[in-house]
## 1
Amino acid sequence: MRHVITVLGVIGISAALMASPVRALEPDQLPPSYTLGLNAGTAQMGVPDGAGGVIGNVATGSTLGVDTIPTFDSYFYDPGFNTNGIRQYTWQFRMVGRVPFKGGEDDNDRRDDDGPVTRFRAPVVPVTVDLRNGDGSPRFVNGQRLISSPAAYVAPTLASPIFQPTGYTSSFIPTQFTDAILRAEFYGVASHHWHTLLYPSVKPGRTMVFVAGTYRFALNADGTCCAFILVDRSTFNNALFPIGQQAVTAGDITTQDISTFLFPNTFLYSNGDPKQCCILGFHTYVAEPGDQSNGWMERRYVFNYSSWVTLGLFASGWADVAVLSHELTETFNDPFGGNLVPWWLAPNGNCQNNLETGDVIEGLPNAIKTIHLGGTAYHVQNEALLQWFAGQTPSTAINGAYSYPDPVLTTPSVSRNPGCE
């Protein structure tokens, strides 16, 4: 994933959502079964090398000269090819938080607030989708306004394992999903007290308006909007960044935050073709020039677009916060989309050369994991670990794993030729 990072989910809508009123469809209205059978994919943009990679055991601190979230840099060795097809052995990567390596300190002497814990503000901006006529006027179908709000999904998102402590084998205390993944990767070297935590807060909602011709929609069984909304990807991007700027201007999100724009069952299609669907979320950042107030440092705002997905909408198991789990974990492992690794070919057919942990596993039969929390069943995505990308044998991750929380991957990546040819 590059500057704009996207993730395609598998799309298939269950029979439970096919009970729309029997009426003639609007020209741009879709039956709830429309996406059934469409192929999974990603919006992305070999030769075995023997014993596998070696992960470094030192790291440097935060990004110099940039006004953004705290990060650390480290590296691994593994023979492979870079984007230009040139042989490369050393691969640097940048991750969110503080350096994990203990440096010899005694875990028993460390306090939870003594340095190893990094805390991020995590603003959640609910985004309402307002579908309009071609002239920009409010649109009604069968007397119902075409507007979809994420309000009902905000509270369950905040109550989910994304933000609430949950038990994982990678942590001695209950913790958040993204922290558990990061700890699994550095389990053998990090202090028991090393954590990277998100502190969410709900910000004022924003609204994205789309005019007819740039979207498709399916109604709920009761005729209200909307079982799902499909939006042209380019149109969506052009609308998302202005509302991001509004949030920045209002002080709702800053360079020190990891921000989420939460949407209601809103998915993207590419090249103006609704059949080239569906992108469920992406993570990225926006860069702006600095000024005298911050020492003229470039400002980077790290954020993601993630859609809440109603359970049963996708045959592949995408539901509730699964997309958010994918995007935030990838943010933790590759906050600026610049972590290049040897070319890899995943079991799902994805061929990429970046450290995007969710792309390796998305769409596989066992990609989604159910976690019960507070009497509610939530869904998260299993994630590939750093050791998989590094081709490390054996893995130094928790229990020799290549994915977490579940052992979906049992062997490491093998370096491929560019494009996996």
## 2
Amino acid sequence: MLCSTDRSGHLQFWKRGPARTGAPESTSSLPAGRLCSREVQDRMKKIATIAFLLAVCVAAGRAQESRQDISISGTALIEPFIASSTDVQVHSTTAYGALASYRFMLTPSSAFEANYGITYQNKIDFYSPNFDKGIQVLTRTQEISGAYVHTFYYHKLNPFVEAGPGALIFLPIVNSGTKVLGAKQQTSVGGLYGAGIAYEISPSFDIRAEYRGFVTKVPNFGDPGGYKFDTNKWYNIYYPVVGVAYHF
């Protein structure tokens, strides 16, 4: 409140207005609700960006972890001599072929394996007092099997064991090497077992060597030509394998 005297000597009073400080007045024309909404949007964008970066990092980490592999191997299928209670004896030559395998890791040390194998050909000879000179059947053998694989890790040397069900398909080859007519394709169900070792040559490749065994019934090819090839015996086939695996 200010006061002064006029020319007649009377006091006069004036009301003082608010003092000016020189600070600029607020020029924002946005309502408070819109400012709050913009802050929320900015915060959500930051959260989304962080979540995306985390997802990329997790995906990159999982990409570096090999969970599958495929392998190609050379094989030798060695069928043992069989002497049976039916007076039929079976001799076989070694069959050479190839094996393709696929493994899917269930845990870091456990896997499921699927196999398909095929041999070029081998000779299976049946002997009996009724055909003492032997009757020969040329055969191509296919394997279809699945197995559980358990691996033990020791630096670059990784031993493993496996076992599972499977089937061998004996395919008679009809040519001059087969000495009897009417030999039929035969599928024998059995079991696979084995143990081997894998040597890691890089993060993506390893070399595998394995001894496999396959237990199945000795084929009789449908007793062709009226001959009885029944043995009532089971094969324990020796099945060494050497190959290369690729991890992805």
## 3
Amino acid sequence: MHHVLSDKLYIAIIFTLLALTSCGGRKGELRIKGEIKGLNNADLTIFSRDGVIQGIDTLHVRQGKIDWQCPYDKENGSLTIVYPTFSTLTVFGSSGDVIILEGESKQLNSTKVSGNEHNEAYTRLRLQIESAKAEEKDSLKKDFIKQNPESPVSRMLQLEELASQEPFSLKNGEEIPEFSLVTRKGDTITNDSIKGKYALFAFWANWRGKTTQVNTCIRRLRRQVRQPLVCISYNMDVNDNILGYIERTDTITWHSYCDQKAFLSDLPTQLGVRDLPLFILTDTCSRIIAVGNDWNKDIEPIVKDELIPASRESSEKQH
């Protein structure tokens, strides 16, 4: 017996399929759409601390409407949208997601974000925090992290907390704390392995402006110094693909490390790293002899005084 679908059932199936396909995006892409009422024509900045998009992009708003998309293969990545008021909104997405924004220009902090469970959970938390008393706000965040330890929202809240803290004061003469790093090439670097050598720890991330120039500084240092020297490029991104690309294009031949934990990584946590780039130079006894964010101001003068003269003297003895 042949079964023939009725016209009504056929049409119902077609509409169901269309509804299912229209509410999701295409794999390998991320889309952000929606409306911010009252924000007629504006260009918003969008970037990713996770490095899931390269550099900074522009999210165009026309007559309040938003429709932006980009190649995206990350699972549970985050993007930050910067409004014209310089306030920010973080959204979370995976490959194939369509993120929906609904808000008003007069109340940007109350913008609702949907499209997946993480955005909806963060929206609920933001609205709770906005209406809570000052003394309750911190507890709301801590409770969320405790109840959702694996959520990308919790990770973002932890990073914000770290960034808001005062950095530790690293002083010359202090020893670098105990550490053990397995580099991307499989080498193990420890306190013992750098003893008897000068060592440079360079903390940087692709998402943090000009910190990729760190590698240029390291390359120049390696050319200048003939003393036993260990250089460690400590990357604070969470996207391994981007780091691999940078290593190839910058021809990084020295030690490169990344555990994709950003500011939650063990050594940066011990050292109190809060801003990037950060350079730490240690002597042959693993004591800090220079530390700072500005290579030219904080590190290079010490290199010239401590390392280069010794290198020249050693070279002259050889001749």
## 4
Amino acid sequence: MTIGRSVLVLIFLLLNFLFLDFPGVKIIAYGIILYILLDYLYYKLVYIKLNLERANKDFYLFAGMAESAGVIIKNPLLLPIYAVIVNDQSDLSISVRQVYSFLNSVNKKGARELSYTICGKKRGLYKVGPTVVKFVDFCGIFSFEMEFDTKREIIVFPSIYPFYELPYKSLQPQGNFRNNLPIYEDVSMIKGMKEYQPGDELKRINWKLSAKQDKILVNTYFCSVSLDSYIVLNLFKEDYSFKEATFYMESAIEIAGSLAYHLNVKKQKFGFVTNCMIDGKEKLLDIPVASGNEHFITIISKLALISPSKNIKFSNAIDSLFSLKWGVAIYVITPQVNEELIYTLLELYKLGHSVGIFTVGPRIDRTLGLKDVGFLPYHLEIENQVIKVLPVEG
């Protein structure tokens, strides 16, 4: 039927409705009009009152770990929302789909969480959102499509691995310098139990376990020291001039993050410096010595976002250490060692700092004689989810 004929039919029906007396038809017509008006009001209320927000306010993921993501849709009305389509966007680098779609109903004055799984495949900064909501009324007459600003940045941290026999220089300083910083037991870090012996302090007794075991047991604790540490990471691109350079760069970053984690577990103060590219700019990223979980999160967040530097040499990062106070344990993470680096580190050693050198590249130079000048040379490899620490002989 053409538009012209449809208009004529509508005019004819309207004239019949106005001038002819068909009460039944009028009741039906009024009912349809009222229903459409109520349907429009319902549609309008849903359009105005429907609320949607991100379920997770802040996102932090470690590479290789899965986490739940999604949105919460809220219905403040006294009527349920019977059908609404929610499309949430996600970065393909952290999920298997670019758009997650949900068809759900929401009870009156209720809320529903719509979630899906994301996985940090690789360290970096990613995004989820925005979210689009589609709604159609009962009759399919009125509908809307609304976009909610649910964008969130998701930081994927580098993977954290345990060390196999990591030599903590900050727990046992090396060299001929006398250690004036004592080692204390940390009562918040219980190591184990032992039977009571004469001389043990009464406050160490674990009364609950002693009652169960029918013998007196005392707590033993891990040690915590006041000696500071500094993690120095080499990300100068030219120093990674070998095959699989990206793999070794990522390994170096993961080792730096793992070392920061373990120093934090030991409740030590530590700083971090590296030559890198971050936020689109090349810079010497230097985070001063501090302690605590917030400090660790700051460092690991930076490690998630950095990339190699093309112009800032590693020597710039090393030079920044000459302002440190006496007795800092310096952990140098680099793909290779040369004579210039050794001479610079030797000057730091003479200033009272213990220096440990961790190489992560495929080149191991055993002819430098680093032990002869008081350094601790090690080669680090990540294998089977563990960082192997291999002493470099020579």
